[in-house]
Structure formats: structure tokens, C-alpha cells
Amino acid sequence: MLSIVNAVPHQLHKRQTEFGACSNLPPDTPVLDVTISPDPVVPVSTDTFTISGTLKKDITDAYNLYIAFVDDNGTIINNDIVDICKQVTCPIKAGTLYQTVQNAYVPQLSGTDFIVVGIANGIGTDADVLGCATATA
Predict the structure, then answer these.
(1) The domain containing residue 118 runs over which residues?
(2) CA 127, CA 63: separation in Å to the nearest integer?
(3) What is the CATH number of the domain that holds 48?
(4) Which positions fall inside the MD-2-related lipid-recognition domain (predicted)?
(5) Model confidence pLDDT, tens digit, residues 14-69
(6) Which 8-state DSSP code applies to residue 125?
(7) What does the pLDDT look like over 58-97, one tens digit per residue?
(8) What's the pTM?
(9) How many domains is the chain built from?
């Protein structure tokens, strides 16, 4: 996930949050479909994230869902980690639609911050990322 964080594209702020591909991953990495409520996020509150995607690899107990807020320098401001397999029966087979609704804390934002949502087996350059999406907060 850290490699994703370091390559977040710099986008202009928009009224509605639009999630797109994480730029530092192979081009065939599935892009997660993410919507948030309220939109845009409200700092120092909880937002609801509706996340879905069809992945190319099985989700096993080695993978978690990450919802991270990252500043312009790539520093994680806040990171909610969800143990997927504590919420659903794993494995979730490749090609099966994964859907979840999660609440995540929105930290105080500094102006040019990003939201990164990913399913991975860790944080760092060696992490295996099954799906990802990013947006300007």
C-alpha cells in the first residue's frame, strides 16, 4: 500500500469525489468501485465507504481492506484496516464480485490530501495489491 500512497496522482479538488486507478501499480490491477457518503468527506467525522470490485486473485485471510488518508508527501494521516475474512467467509474466489460497506474516520485534512482504498496483504513496496482506487479528498 505504501507504494500506492507514494504515487497518488495530483488532481484538482472536485465537488464530487471521483475514484480512479492507483498509478503505481501494474495496469491490469483491478480498480475498485468506491462511493462515499457524505460526499465530499467531512473532516474529523466518520464517512461511509461503499466498495466493490471483481478481483483477479482470491481474497484469503492474508488480505485486508485498507482505507487510508494520505497527505501530499505520501504520509499516511489515518488508515483504517478491515480484516475481510472476519466479515465474510473466505476465500472469496477470483472473478467473484466483492462488496462491502465500511465506516472510516476522516482526519483533519491539510488541503491536498488523498483517499486510497485497497485490498492488499500489507503496506509497503512488497505488498500484493489485489485491487485499488484513489481520489483527491
Answers:
(1) 2-136
(2) 10
(3) 2.60.40.770
(4) 17-134
(5) 468 999 999 889 999 999 999 999 999 999 999 999 999 999 999 999 999 999 99
(6) T
(7) 999 999 999 999 998 889 999 999 999 999 999 999 999 9
(8) 0.88
(9) 1
